[in-house]
Amino acid sequence: xxxxxxxxxxxxxxxxxxxxxxxxxxxxxxxxxxxxxxxxxxxxxxxxxxxxxxxxxxxxxxxxxxxxxxxxxxxxxxxxxxxxxxxxxxxxxxxxxxxxxxxxxxxxxxxxxxxxxxxxxxxxxxxxxxxxxxxxxxxxxxxxxxxxxxxxxxxxxxxxxxxxxxxxxxxxxxxxxxxxxxxxxxxxxxxxxxxxxxxxxxxxxxxxxxxxxxxxxxxxxxxxxxxxxxxxxxxxxxxxxxxxxxxxxxxxxxxxxxxxxxxxxxxxxxxxxxxxxxxxxxxxxxxxxxxxxxxxxxxxxxxxxxxxxxxxxxxxxxxxxxxxxxxxxxxxxxxxxxxxxxxx
Length: 344
Prior knowledge:
Blueprint lengths: L4 H18 L20 E7 L4 H14 L3 E5 L3 H10 L5 E4 L5 H10 L3 E10 L1 E4 L8 E3 H8 L23 E5 L4 H11 L10 E3 L2 H9 L4 E5 L1 H6 L5 E2 L1 E3 L4 E2 L3 H5 L7 E9 H4 L2 H20 L7 H12 L17 H8 L1
Parallel strand pairs: 1-2, 1-3, 6-11, 7-8, 7-9
Antiparallel strand pairs: 3-13, 4-13, 5-9, 5-10, 11-12
Helix pairs in contact: 1-12, 1-13, 2-11, 3-4, 11-12
């Protein structure tokens, strides 16, 4: 079973970290055992960041608090970039992120003395959506999406028939994410070829629900959202299949798992403050996230990672291994075969 390129990097590089943690041991990685509920746990855990990861973390937080009523988990939404700003300032214990930490954010955390443990938690598929009344778009190529979203398109590609002549001579109204959004960063990297390279004349929001409503209320709109938000709003928006060169593919758990939905499949993360990781309530919450989270992840519309990834992620957390395996890069398009060869 194939997985998307960024997940491959997670698996390969977390495996290296886990091997270091186990030293001479060659035992098969075992998942963390679920912690027993504890009325003795207390305190507050501050979380902020990606609106894409928010539904997962909020579901985990609600379930965790039911079993541990003495702990209050506060989950905010300010976008991946906004979340990292707070995290690197020491304002939060955990940061939700729909992309790996960037070089600039790494430098910011370093200046503030904030160390972090990077943990992949689920898989997402950015989904291009149109209004249900749109009867002319079923599939778009990556090249067509680039033509629409690249900086050079600003003020020029403003009507549907400029993308394809057979499409209506009607306004092309775009909805997307703000520059603080990890989805914005990943979408531009995957489609345009450079993170943050985008036209600016579109309706931007840090809240994915605003994008959903914008597309739902405009026959001529187009936007992009996380897979869970599409599943939650199937009566309001319609997905567009993506042709990356091998035919039109719709986003789904199957096409994400087998690697055919590309280049918009991606893992999403939580980053845990190294300082906060030693607090009993934070450690218990992370254990709960990696053991109970997978079932909740599917319930909210995302795709759980393989069990081996959660096992390796726990070993990374348990060993308090700080830093990122991505070196501030998205690594779009890197195959698992390439990574495995590089590690041999």
